[in-house]
Amino acid sequence: MELTKEAVASAVKSHSAVRGQGTLPNLLSFARALKALEVKVSLSQVLDTSRSVDLVDIADRADFRAVLRANLITQKEDFPVFDMLFDQFWREQSYERAEMDSLDIEGTPTESSAQEGGDEEGLEEAISEMLPEEDVPLDNLDEFTVPTYSPQELLNRKDFSEMGIEESRAIARAILLIATKIATQISRRKKLGRKGNVVDPRWTMRRNMKYGGEIIELVNRKRRIKKTRVVLLCDVSGSMDCYSRFLIQFMYGLQNELWGVETFVFSTSLSRITHLIRTKDIVNALEKISGSILGWSGGTNIGRSLHTFNRNFAPSVVTHRTVVVIISDGWDRGDVSLLEREMQDLKRRCKKIIWLNPLLASDNYEPLCKGMQAALPYLDLFLSVHNVNSLIALGRTLQKMVA
Amino acid sequence: MQGEVEVNPQQLTIEKVQDILRQEQYVCDRSLATVVYLSLTMGKPLLLEGEAGVGKTEIAKVLSKVLQAKLIRLQCYEGLDANTSLYEWNYPKQMLRIKLEEVEHGDKEAVETEIFTEEYLIKRPLLEAIQTDGAHPPVLLIDEIDRADMEFEAFLLEVLSDFQITIPEIGTISAKHRPYVFLTSNRTREIHDALKRRCLYHWIEYPSFEKEYEIITTKFPEVEANMARQICAFMQRVRQMNFYKRPGVAETLDWASALIALNRKGLDDKTVVETMGCVFKYREDLHHLREQVEGKQFNLEALLKSPEMAS
After folding, report:
1. pTM higher than 0.80 for the full model?
2. Which of A28, A179, B103, B310 is the most exposed place for a label (fewest CB within 10 A)?
3. Chain segment B63-94, per-residue pLDDT in tens
4. DSSP label of A310
């Protein structure tokens, strides 16, 4: 825990008002450290934490941890980050007065509530030193990656910045069009109709005002249009390389325009990237993805990726109302029987499976590779994606399906 | 048994929470007790997540019992709206009143104001929770919040942060007693941050071997110790295996009670296969288990012989 003397001095100075009751400032800097690790924390949560800390015996480390965790963390995925930071931050000696002060960083409570950035360099340095050298796991990625399979698995970081986002404007526009179409389709929620079986009293009264309140017409309520969810499973292995620019655009566009889209990428293993592309800042999102995906441009093991998906994600993400979209060329180096089993399992859970294959466009293409053949019987739709026109066609199909 | 000792939420400790829950046969570990304690003392809602059947709903039920509070339960479903969760005007009654006044040539303006009073209001769970009279604040259980639409969470925000409901025709109704609020979610979708921020959060894990053993022996004191250990070891093992639906504590208890009803003192291959319907509810899972046992990939015998080792 190395902080410059100046930082400590100024911390002491700016915190003189709250000194002697060191808990809150300490909690604030802890919350900030969490924030720096991309855990969402709000000021009101910190204040509640300090309230609850008074209610327990903080000398009991386990209780103290439980209190902090209950207040500051809002999803299970953040537990590992929290635990790591907790261990580093509240080390034994940090209960001692002197060390506690050194943790305090300049900045008043109000300042630290500012949502973005704002963190002083001193704090960031402190955090980076508190944590091990390796990349900090920002989420559940390391928890869900499975052992590698292919000899060709590459751990390279693909630089998306070379992609040139400008040139894919046309694709972006097409996606936007599709996505908004689907979005408006599902947002028509409640309909009034003559045929429904439930009388809507409010509308009945309103409709009958013209008869002076005498009930002449009955207004019925129809069932709402059910919302369909979309899960995207995207192949990012080496054989799909030339399409990856388009794929990223597609995943990004669809997820940002539609409610309830979950996005995963796979090659030899599977990663959830929904949270990484849930942002309007695409450049930043691309960096994040390329930085955290294991095996980008590596080999393919569709079967095992699907297995991971079915086991870890499908129970919570896929319902009978979900449309699963798999984007892959079907070149699989894994066990074909596993792939078939998992496709069967997936088929049972979801409403429709759509497979998008960029190779389908070439005239003489036939789904000969084993992986593709194994999957074919379980598909509801087998479509091509290779250019803007095929995207528009896809949009129409999805729209019909969702409606 | 319960109800002899008055439980004052303001004088609780973590240990006491654990104790009173145990009295009602709910075994919980210290971290869960801590969170419940905080929620009760601070009056902050508690969001519980976890796999199906680990006792998320149960804890609210048990607490309402020990606190001698009324349990108000709002089961969420898709399409749940303000009319079914907050309040609704009693239209038939209002219309009837209007008709009556028409016949009697009553005062038009008086009627207009009168039909929008509490008398003509149908209270739905959330309003009921806020308006409950009596010595003890109620326990409000909002079950499976993830099944409701995103829009529904917005209604909850006012209720959960300020404990008040605004009805345009009447005004704002504030809580007389702050209800103890518990929300559960199975994570079929993400809950909005705004709602999460207003809650304490806890993830209930599958129980450890020791905890599950304690749960069984607490619920069924008559159970043979050895069989209880066997059951736990078995459950611990199958949760690590690849099943379509992993069994929760609810299944463990079902199974235990079935075995007790069948007068079994211990488990053997045959019993396990016969009673597996309590644990697995899918044909594929049953099939999978049988395959594993027959193929010796799953060494049932060794597991049953020394359950402690297997855990």
Report:
1. no
2. B103
3. 999 888 899 999 998 778 888 898 988 888 88
4. I
